[in-house]
Design goal:
Elongation of fatty acids protein; single chain; ELO_fam; 227 residues; fatty acid biosynthesis; 0% strand; 69% helix; mainly alpha; transmembrane helix; elongated
Length: 227
């Protein structure tokens, strides 16, 4: 799509401002629902099991069915709808700055979330909460930007994304504790998957830090962060 669609779009692209506003607010609202729904079910499981250990070391016998994992599946499905971001950018002939990061991120995230579900990856629900919270803010910003509403908190969009990835690194500590604590003998679900996801997050963190510290002259042309 990235290589062939631009050849079919007229010079200057299509004017899709109304579509873009609706799309961004749908994503912001959808992210809010996912965030609140997952948070509620996480709280229910904590009350039921009287522990938070499962967040950092998921049981290897856990099923990816039920209320909590419903939100993981819904999150996975939402990643395909987010590909509309790329489609709209190409139809408008208006590639955002750092478009390579945009494509890299949106192409690989559905694979990573499928990996979460396939291997019942530890920390996936905390990752889901962080990602959807950031997306509530980010897509609201995008929608307001198209409407020319002042958004003085623009830089916090990227900063929140960086905090998200730094947090994922910090949470490695309790995961390692539960994984290799000899007296407990804990074995966590999706260990390999977790470290693959960690490596992916490191690449995103490196790229987002680069976006944040892009010279101001480049930022003046407009910046649409990709997460």
């Amino acid at each position: 799509m990235v290589f062939f669609l631009p050849r079919c779009v007229p010079e200057g692209g299509y004017k899709l401002d109304k579509t873009l506003v609706v799309h961004n607010f749908i994503l912001s609202l959808m992210s809010l629902v996912l965030c609140l729904g997952c948070a509620f079910e996480m709280l229910q499981r904590v009350r039921r099991e009287n522990t938070v250990e499962w967040m950092f070391c998921e049981d290897t016998s856990i099923s990816t069915r039920g209320p909590l994992y419903f939100w993981s599946w819904a999150f996975y499905a939402s990643k395909y709808y987010e590909l509309v971001d790329t489609l709209l950018a190409l139809l408008r002939a208006s590639r955002p700055p750092h478009f390579g990061l945009h494509v890299y991120h949106h192409a690989l995230v559905p694979v990573m979330v499928w990996n979460w579900l396939e291997h019942r990856t530890t920390l996936q629900h905390i990752g889901l909460l962080w990602n959807t919270f950031v997306h509530v803010v980010m897509y609201a910003y995008y929608g307001l930007k198209v409407l020319h509403v002042p958004t003085p908190w623009k830089k916090w969009v990227t900063r929140l994304q960086i905090v998200q990835f730094v947090t994922s690194m910090a949470l490695l500590v309790p995961v390692l504790y539960y994984t290799w604590d000899a007296p407990l003998g804990d074995v966590c679900a999706g260990q390999r998957s977790f470290f693959v996801n960690l490596a992916f997050n490191l690449t995103l963190l490196w790229q987002f830090v680069g976006v944040l510290y892009t010279p101001a002259t480049g930022a003046k042309k407009g910046s649409r962060k990709q997460e």
